[in-house]
Amino acid sequence: MEIKVLKDILSTNDEMAERNRALLDSKKITAFNIMSSPGSGKTSLILETIRALKKQARIGVIEGDIASTIDAQKVSREGVPVVQINTGGECHLEAGQIGRALESLPLDEIDLLLIENVGNLVCPGEFRLGEHKKVLILSVPEGEDKVHKYPLLFSVADAIVINKMDLLPYARFDVPAFLKAARGLNRKARIFQVSCATGEGIREWTRWVRSAMSRSK
Ligand code: MG
Ligand code: ZN
Known about the structure:
Bound molecules: magnesium ion, zinc ion
Largest sheet: 7 strands, parallel
CATH class: Alpha Beta
CATH superfamily: P-loop containing nucleotide triphosphate hydrolases
């Protein structure tokens, strides 16, 4: 019985995700679902992406957090439309929440929608939101063994961003071992090595963002 209830929740989520996707496609918006642990740099990567691309693309942001509007305020200072979803304790975003957030965004004035999921490496990977691309961030201080502990997210990601590369000299993060393990789970994901602090790798990342935007049109 419990299994059936869970299945119903997931299929309702998938229906809503498809509705979101159809709306986004009709508005020619490319949407990214950005996932990571707390503190890996989701907001930092969103801010760097806005700064790099805001002359070329109209960007909108949905911020998912358990509580607070701290990240939404940071994004809003960049002059882009942003909607905050406070999940009130829930550890992931669901498609219904995205559907409601889309109602309060100026969809005719957005080309690229960046969705910051709740900081969590487990269940965000199980809930489709209607996005075109799933982006997973892992930061150097977390260690490369996360790829073994949370294989689902690594296997479903379209892009994997290793952030905080500037901290590599001070951390135990074996880049070749990580790349080998990640490739073992996911042969197609693009893998980027970036630092939002120094700007390393941001150009390669934004080039991929732009190519993903032109492919989803
Ligand atoms: Mg954040
Ligand atoms: Zn969750």
